[in-house]
Amino acid sequence: MVIQRLQTLYLILAIVMVSVFFYVPFGYTTVADVADGVSVLEPLRAGQFTGLVIPMALTLALMVVAIFMFKKMPMQKLMVLVSALLTVVSMGVVVYVMVSGFSDTNPQVTMTSVWGGGGLLLVGALIAQLAAYNGISSDQRLLRSYDRLR
Question: What's the pTM value of the predicted model, to 2 decimals?
Answer without folding.
Answer: 0.82
